[in-house]
């Protein structure tokens, strides 16, 4: 009797103790990474939007002996002694790396905006397009990540050029003990201010409704570096100004890259479908049917040589009447009927559909781990992202152009008994853009991180097959996607091998 | 009366539906020392409307979601005031529209101890105060993050207390419980948008919101039949999400108000038949389901 009572009381107490408010997801805290190199020749690296870093002039800073500079320095020193807990939180948050943090912010916004128009039960229609809430699906996100990282990269190349030209010594070399690890490069202009300003402006172009939020983030980011003891306000100002000029270039590029028409509100894709050189064409499997995802995204201006991109386009798929197609269909059916739990996991892991940061976002996340692991400094991590993201945007362009040429139906359209482990993307299937993007991204990453080749290739292989396991792609989709992806990735590798970074 | 202690009521709240499985395993009737019972029931449940947050909708891409389950439920009296309860359902669920595959398999194994702490007699009436503590864990690694699933895959600790009043054939039971649900690992990285979510790559481990559970049940229990009616309200306790694209299903804050009735008829000595019905009155991130079940119970 007594033992029961004790048992119950103890267990009830334990239950009660555990009944506290919990976070929905756990966020780990990662240690700071000290970059392994300063890349002092970074100012000579090849820029993407600018003809060269010299295109943007950064004014000569005041000498460190000047009164203006000395009073700034004193203010920073005094600030270090009176930091508030909120300031420390901001300092630690942004010290993880400005390029990484803004890439994360971009992914966060993509996952927020990557939501299809809602179905309205009362009207039986999908909600009309709202220009303030663009749908951040894969090609949209690929372009966003590319423009963001290109603007960051160009702004950093300009910063690096000015840093080593004017050589204003870092605050640490002037006896200031910073609160977090600081890369030992000249402090003028601030690389953090450059990244914050460029990122804020580019992201605000994509998500105008977030402008105020982004500006607050950027202001906090810049200020956090003064609180950290990394730079003085005049370093920030110079970084901000040069980045504004780079961001303007990025936005001009975005206005003229023909992506604006990708959404195709007048449904001109239907005439493309009627002319498609394929015997059975795609139709939407959503109930009610909806227009496909960004049908004209395949006409977007490419980052790399457009004739080489055209060569990377997949060849025509086998017609539905051919034995090759029938065999491919039977393969998907067999896989779907005997799908293992592990195949389901793989399909789900790589699907990155609606409400997520998309497939390009997934590869940005993988790149983030590598950038961190290899201690890349801001400039070099921006280069990594810029190379990979340009390859992925061009990969998405290749994929979309091919999909909206052939209009190959998804397996479940040909055989409705095929059930899928992931939501069927609302667009024609050939080629698999998951396979394409995976191979484009890993081709670049393997070049940049040769020691990780084995892991990256395994990831690419799994991602390539994932949507076949999911039941939404044929094997010829994933094979064609993988081939095109490698071809596009090679273009980025070609660029990287001649951009001056080594 | 104890000899035909009805089990129907346990099974009733042991419902299964594609968005949530609440397990109100326990009622106020003690088994009795070294007495055992075994129940096997089959239930059919379906919904074509569900709650997204608290808004009721119908998704033409899901159609009607129907679930069949086979429940094995056993109780054993370890002592005159302590029972062991064990339950294992086999569940199959599918949607009538769209392309989500049918899910099927053993769901969660639950074991609970029920202790009658106090027993007061007032003339011909009795009031007892009971406590129960249960633990459940998934029997296999089933799919948890899809519109059509058999469970949310968490390991749960369920603590509850109840007051059971009996006057002749009439009884009234009120119970309050807290279900602590453990974190689960998704097949993917959770990267959904939350304003206070600083980092969009927090990993695959997500929390399943805890819930509180209130059940009020009343009816008549005689040697020849048992009948009851009940009302149950389960509410999310910890902060959770609402169903939306990209949001992991297990993190959704699930709650509901349900009502139902059940019947048990002994046929020959220790063998009887049971039937039950329940319906959902209101909910949050859950199917607006109705459920019909039937089965047999053997006393040992």
Give a summary of the structure in a few sentences.
Chain A has 502 residues and is mainly α. Chain A is 57% helix and 1% strand. In chain A, 50% of the residues are buried.
Question: How would you explain this protein's 3D organization?
Answer:
By secondary structure, chain A is mostly helical. Chain A has 2 domains: 81-255, Vanadium-containing Chloroperoxidase, domain 2; 288-496, Vanadium-containing Chloroperoxidase, domain 2. Chain A is 57% helix and 1% strand. Chain A is built from 18 helices and 2 strands. A two-stranded antiparallel sheet of chain A has the order 1-2. In chain A, a hairpin with a 4-residue loop joins strand 1 (119-120) and strand 2 (125-126). Chain A is elongated and about 80 Å long. In chain A, 50% of the residues are buried. The model of chain A is unreliable at 15-20 (pLDDT under 50). With 300 residues, chain B is an all-beta fold. Chain B has a single domain (2-299), classed as Porin (Beta Barrel), CATH 2.40.160. Chain B has a 12-stranded antiparallel β-barrel. In chain B, strands 2-3 form a two-stranded antiparallel ribbon. Chain B has a two-stranded antiparallel ribbon with strand order 11-12. In chain B, a hairpin with a 2-residue loop joins strand 9 and strand 10. The model of chain B is unreliable at 1-24 (pLDDT under 50). Classes of the chains: A mainly alpha (502), B mainly beta (300).
């Amino acid at each position: 009797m007594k033992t029961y009572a004790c048992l119950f009381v103890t267990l009830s107490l334990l239950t009660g103790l555990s009944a506290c408010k919990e976070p929905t997801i756990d966020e780990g805290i990662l240690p700071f990474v000290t970059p392994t190199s300063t890349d002092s020749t970074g100012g000579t690296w090849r820029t993407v939007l600018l003809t060269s870093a010299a295109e943007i002039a950064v004014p000569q800073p005041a000498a460190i002996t000047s009164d203006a500079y000395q009073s700034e320095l004193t203010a920073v020193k005094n600030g270090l002694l009176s930091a508030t807990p909120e300031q420390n939180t901001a300092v630690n948050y942004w010290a993880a790396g400005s390029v990484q943090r803004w890439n994360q912010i971009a992914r966060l916004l993509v996952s927020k905006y990557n939501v299809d128009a809602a179905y309205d039960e009362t009207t039986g229609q999908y909600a009309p397009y709202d220009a303030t809430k663009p749908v951040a699906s894969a090609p949209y996100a690929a372009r966003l990540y590319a423009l963001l990282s290109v603007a960051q990269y160009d702004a950093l190349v300009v910063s690096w050029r000015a840093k080593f030209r004017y050589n204003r010594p870092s605050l640490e070399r002037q006896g200031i003990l910073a609160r977090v690890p600081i890369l030992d490069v000249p402090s003028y202009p601030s690389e953090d201010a450059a990244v914050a300003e460029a990122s804020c402006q580019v992201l605000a172009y994509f998500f105008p409704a977030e402008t105020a939020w982004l500006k607050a983030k950027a202001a906090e980011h810049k200020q956090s570096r003064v609180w950290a003891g990394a730079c003085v306000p005049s370093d920030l100002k110079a970084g901000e100004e040069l980045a504004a000029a780079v961001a303007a270039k990025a936005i001009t590029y975005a206005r003229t890259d023909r992506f604006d028409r990708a959404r195709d509100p007048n449904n001109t894709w239907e005439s493309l479908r009627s002319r498609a050189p394929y015997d059975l064409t795609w139709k939407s499997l959503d109930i009610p049917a909806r227009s496909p995802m960004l049908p004209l995204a395949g006409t977007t201006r490419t980052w790399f040589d457009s004739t080489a991109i055209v060569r990377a386009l997949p060849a025509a798929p086998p017609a539905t009447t051919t034995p090759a197609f029938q065999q491919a269909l039977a393969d998907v059916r067999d896989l779907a009927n005997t799908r293992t739990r592990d195949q389901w996991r793989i399909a789900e892991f790589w699907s990155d559909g609606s409400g997520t940061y998309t497939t390009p976002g997934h590869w940005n996340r993988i790149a983030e781990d590598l950038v961190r692991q290899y201690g890349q400094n801001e400039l070099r991590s921006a280069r990594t992202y810029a190379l990979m993201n340009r390859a992925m945007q061009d990969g998405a362009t290749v994929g979309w152009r091919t999909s909206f040429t052939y209009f190959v139906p998804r397996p479940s359209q040909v055989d409705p008994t095929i059930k899928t482990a992931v939501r069927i993307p609302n667009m024609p299937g050939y080629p698999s853009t998951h396979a394409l993007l995976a191979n484009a991204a890993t081709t670049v990453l393997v070049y940049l991180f040769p020691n990780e080749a084995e892991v990256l290739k395994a990831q690419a292989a799994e991602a390539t097959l994932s949507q076949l396991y999911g039941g939404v792609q044929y094997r010829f989709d994933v094979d064609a996607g993988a081939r095109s992806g490698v071809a596009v990735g090679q273009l980025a590798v070609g660029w990287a091998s001649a951009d001056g970074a080594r | 009366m104890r000899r035909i202690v009805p089990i129907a009521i346990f099974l009733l709240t042991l419902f299964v539906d594609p968005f949530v499985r609440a397990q109100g395993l326990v009622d106020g009737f003690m088994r009795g020392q070294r007495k055992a019972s075994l129940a096997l029931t089959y239930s059919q449940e379906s919904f074509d409307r569900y709650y997204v947050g608290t808004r009721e909708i119908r998704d033409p891409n899901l159609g009607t979601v129907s679930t069949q389950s086979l429940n094995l439920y056993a109780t054993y009296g370890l002592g005159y005031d302590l029972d062991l309860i064990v339950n294992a359902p086999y569940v199959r669920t599918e949607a009538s529209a769209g392309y989500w595959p049918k899910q099927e398999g053993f769901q969660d194994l639950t074991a609970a101890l029920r202790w009658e702490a106090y027993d007061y007699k007032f003339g011909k009436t009795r009031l007892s105060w009971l406590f129960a503590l249960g633990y459940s864990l998934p029997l296999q690694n089933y799919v948890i993050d899809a519109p059509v699933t058999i469970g949310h895959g968490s390991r749960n600790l369920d603590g509850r207390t109840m007051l059971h009043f009996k006057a002749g054939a009439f009884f009234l039971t009120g119970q309050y419980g807290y279900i602590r649900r453990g974190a689960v690992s998704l097949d993917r990285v959770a990267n959904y948008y939350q304003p206070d979510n600083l980092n969009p790559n927090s990993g695959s481990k997500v929390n399943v919101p805890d819930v509180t559970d209130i059940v009020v049940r009343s009816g008549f229990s005689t040697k020849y039949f048992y009948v009851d009616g009940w009302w149950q309200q389960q509410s999310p306790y910890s902060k959770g999400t609402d169903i939306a694209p990209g949001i992991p299903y297990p993190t959704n804050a699930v709650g509901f108000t349900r009502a139902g009735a059940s019947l048990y008829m002994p046929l020959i000595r220790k063998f009887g038949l049971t039937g039950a019905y329940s319906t959902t009155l209101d909910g949050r991130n859950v199917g607006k389901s109705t459920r019909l079940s039937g089965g047999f119970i053997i006393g040992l």
